[in-house]
Design a protein that fits this description.
The chain has 338 residues and is of the alpha/beta class. 42% of the residues lie in helices and 17% in strands. The strands form three sheets. A seven-stranded parallel beta sheet has the order 3-2-1-4-5-6-10, with helices on both faces. Strands 7-9-11 form a three-stranded mixed beta sheet. The protein has a two-stranded parallel ribbon with strand order 8-12. Helix 1 links the parallel strand 1 and strand 2 (29-34). Helix 1 crosses helix 7 and helix 4 packs parallel to helix 5 (150-169). InterPro entries: dTDP_Gluc_deHydtase, NAD(P)-bd_dom, NAD(P)-bd_dom_sf.
Length: 338
């Protein structure tokens, strides 16, 4: 593999994946395609934008003409699709962008990959397609799909299209599904960076309901290594789950963050619960461990401390997000507006 296309590479997970692949594969070049919506931040990759093995093109994966032109510039060997609308709360307010990117975009991207005979496709998905667990049990790759939000429903639809393209056309696709990520460069609408930045500013931390919803947490670096393993070793037509084996209630997570930041629990503010809020997610990642030789390496204690340290050391990055300044960076670098 000489040329890898990463869609959504200016986002949180995509930008971490691009760094991982450039560092670990000296002969690899990467083409990053990103629409640069609110969560696609060019500053996430500012340190590598002049790397001779990295190229960027701005565009929408639902735009067939854009994809055909971008992917025809050189022989692309594989595509990893991170491009997605991914915030549940936003999908409740307006599901339209989620359907366009996560469903139509996935379909158009696969059609162009088939047309150009690209030899490998990885669909990066989420454990939310499985729905909600009770107090016991784990999601496996065979758990029935039962999405409960417009976001997870759109990701489920995209995954089913990938499955159908493999079955119907022999399309060389692998699907990955992961639990909640955390780490550097995460857009601060997600719980960990939001609560870190709010706490540092002395602002309240809004916890849904009583904070008893449970999530399994994985460091973004471990997730990216999993996607890499699926790209290089995964069997076409298969699904691989990645999790961190670290289940926490939201209130436990919140209190841990406040303790590590030296801030009082009086900053916690309980708010009305989100509609249809899934109770618990937890991943069985034994298939990925068995078939791909992958396992999570970063403990939550170490990962959370390093994440807090990163945000403490990147206050300017956080402030650019919160103020919208990062959009000005985009205008200067690429022209136009977000």
């Amino acid at each position: 593999m000489k040329v890898l296309c990463v869609t959504g590479g200016c986002g949180f997970i995509g930008s971490n994946f691009i760094r991982l692949m450039l560092a670990g594969h000296p002969g690899l070049s990467i083409l990053n395609l990103d629409k640069l919506t609110y969560a696609g931040n060019p500053e996430n990759l500012a340190d590598i934008e002049n790397n001779s093995r990295y190229a960027f093109a701005r565009g929408d994966i639902a735009d067939r003409a854009f994809l055909e032109e971008a992917l025809s510039r050189g022989p692309v060997d594989a595509v990893v699709n991170f491009a997605a609308e991914s915030h549940v709360d936003r999908s409740i307010l307006d599901s339209g962008p989620f359907v366009r990117t996560n469903v139509v975009g996935t379909q158009v991207l696969m059609d162009v990959c088939r047309e150009l005979k690209i030899g490998r496709f990885v669909q990066v998905s989420t454990d939310e397609v499985y729905g909600s667990l009770g107090p016991d049990g784990l999601f496996t790759e065979d758990t029935p799909l039962a999405p409960n939000s417009p976001y997870s429903a759109s990701k489920t639809a995209g995954d089913l299209l990938v499955r159908a393209y493999h079955h119907t056309f022999g399309f060389p696709a692998v699907i990955t599904r992961c639990s909640n990520n955390y780490g550097p460069y995460q857009f601060p609408e997600k719980i960990i960076p939001l609560f870190i930045s709010n706490a540092l500013a002395g602002q309240s931390l809004p916890v849904y309901g009583q904070g008893l919803n449970v999530r399994d947490w994985i460091h973004v670096e471990d997730h990216c290594r999993g996607v890499e393993a699926a790209l290089l070793k995964g069997r076409a037509g298969e699904v691989y789950n990645f999790g961190g084996r670290c289940e926490l209630t939201n209130i436990e997570l919140t209190r841990t963050l406040l303790r590590l930041l030296g801030k009082p629990e009086s900053l916690i503010r309980h708010v009305t619960d989100r509609p249809g809020h899934d109770l618990r997610y937890a991943i069985d990642c034994s298939k990925a461990e068995r078939e791909l030789g992958w396992s999570p390496r970063i403990s939550f204690a170490d990962g959370l401390k390093s994440t807090i340290d990163w945000y403490l050391g990147h206050g300017e990055w956080v402030e650019h997000i919160r103020s919208g300044e990062y959009a000005k960076y985009y205008e200067q670098q690429y022209g136009g507006r977000l």
